[in-house]
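Title: Prediction job returns without error message
Component: structure pipeline
Severity: low
Priority: P3
Assignee: unassigned

Description:
Job completed but the reporter wants confirmation the result is attached to the right record. Sequence as submitted:
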Amino acid sequence: MGRRIRQLIDWWNGFRHSSRFHEALVFLAFVGISALFWLIMALNDSVQRSVEVRINVTNVPDSVTFIQFPPQKMHVSVRDKGTALMRTAFFRTPVVNMDFQDFASDGVLRFSRDDINAAAKSLFGASAVVSVTSLDSVRVTYTSLKGKRVPVVVVADITASSGNVVEGRPISSPSNVLVYSTREVLDTITRVYTERVVRRNLSESVSEAVSVRQVAGARIIPAKVDVKINVQPLVNKESKVDVVVKNVPEGMSLLLFPSKVTVSYFVPMSRFNDEVSGLEAWVDYDDIHLIGTKKLPVRLGKTPAGYRNISLRTDSVEYTLVRN
């Protein structure tokens, strides 16, 4: 390998001192000069091309909030010498500045087609033939009023997988947004709604960014909120509940054995240690004449929200009738 490299080095040293090497250098020099002259001649010719121009609205007061955004760019057809286009458009994105103070009035920012063409013309110079191809005119609304803070209502259609439960309503963060518009529109808005969130068979809590539904003639900031869906496993719990007697006639009372029954139910894990409230079990005095036994059936009354698969461990109790 070392011998081959040495042979190549010797060949190169011999070649670069030969006449053929100098002839090749002269040839390449003439080719480069010819290409340079051709490029100069070509750039002096008139050419036409489509140029993307960025639109920058300047001198916007801090108190102004756009309800619709002004366009960020436009496409312009330009005919001019290649050298002129190279200076203005080949190596950078041209920017046209539109002064807010010159075109804004009574909550509306307006650029006519003539305004846009004049701004583009000034950008490319007097020798250029310019026509805007992507914009006819611009009309966007704005407001100087402060934003109105309103709550966000999450619209959702959510189910949990077996053995789990969606605990509470989905929560948005932030819980309030700012709405910008005219006074007339703001007076009609008391809340805003998210786009519908549809999730099925959730087995764990999730969060996702959700768009807020747009309101005609208004701008909402932020336009998206984070929605958290709280999913928890269901756990079994049992509690002792007093049995209430209903429809007892005056002068009579019932003694129940037992006077408490065990109620079994499932709750979200976060509520397992909560005190039991709202569970109700009862017997009906009138069942004595219907059933004719020394036991009365126990029924469930009110059940708290969030409790699942509620059942009684004891479906009947003995009683003793007592006259007062």
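Comment from assignee: result matches the submitted record. The first helix runs from residue 2 to 16.
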